[in-house]
Amino acid sequence: MADIMVYGLTQNNLKHVTFRIPKEKITVFTGVSGSGKSSIVFDTIAAESQRQMNLTYPAFVRSRLPKYPRPAVERIDNLTPSVVVDQSSLGGNARSTVGTISGLYASLRLLFSRIGQPFVGTASYFSFNDPNGMCKTCSGLGKVTKVDMEAVLDRNKSWNQGCVKDSLYRPGSWYWKQYAESGLFDLDKPIRDYTKEEYNLLVYGARDGKGEPENPKVTGLYHKYTKALLNRDISSKSRHTKEKSKKLITEIECSDCHGRRLNEAALNCRINGYSIADMCEMELTLLREVLTQITDQTVGLLVHTILEGLDSLICI
């Protein structure tokens, strides 16, 4: 089989390059950034291959296909169809998992809606993307973000020493005066020596840690930072605020669903003793074994479909 011959390539940084690519062999293009690897593989060989292939279709079809410009090359001989496997990541977001992207989780949700006990509802009741199924505390994310008070406060310092690790609260500043002049705090007492009531007053604005603030100007540092850093659209935050968020906000596992993302009703529904979250946490071969133990013939075809999907993943 004749080798691919490229003559006089001047694509991008390449200048009058001529080379041969053997067929039926693995050829590696390597070099420093900007040396022309992508220009050869993607912008020349793959693009011209696809352009020539598109020319074989009727005009009606070509008008609906992507347009590939002719690369800057004198001639390419013996070019054959190509398949491009690029490094683009899979689509998805913070809620996506292997199960949702592969479609297997949708089949599992349908399975639990049909034979899971106690009965919960339709497949949407097992979706962490749907209000019917998601944990209300974390909105189906499995984790919650909160202000890290350890990052906000230096417990070894008092107000007069600058106990808040934020230049906005430096001694003498406007924010510092709101707390210092409230009469609620001993300005020379280190935070580590605060009683529980005093700490709650500082952090939450109330001595019991909840309820209305004792002073409307001192609503509690936790609430102030939550409002400033969490309860705002990220696109509206300044660069300084975004940097501050990275330092003062932490993610922790949801205390209600413990990272399983679903509400209590969905988690309590089981098939052969396993919840849908249990199955999602299994290694694929173990999940396959568990599914083969389902004997209910009403879902036989559904189980078979899930097993086929698992087999394709296991064999990758």
Walk me through what this model shows.
This protein has helices at 37-54, 59-62, 98-102, 104-115, 149-152, 174-180, 196-204, 221-230, 239-248, 264-268, 276-280, 284-292, 300-314, and strands at 4-9, 17-21, 75-77, 143-147, 249-253, 270-271, 274-275. Strand 1 (4-9) and strand 2 form a beta hairpin. The protein has three domains: 4-77, no CATH class; 98-138 and 264-314, ABC transporter ATPase like fold, CATH 1.20.1580; 145-253, Helicase, Ruva Protein, domain 3. The chain has a three-stranded antiparallel beta sheet, with no helix packed on it. Strands 4-5 form a two-stranded antiparallel sheet. The chain has 316 residues and is mainly alpha-helical. 36% of the residues lie in helices and 9% in strands. The two termini are 30 Å apart.
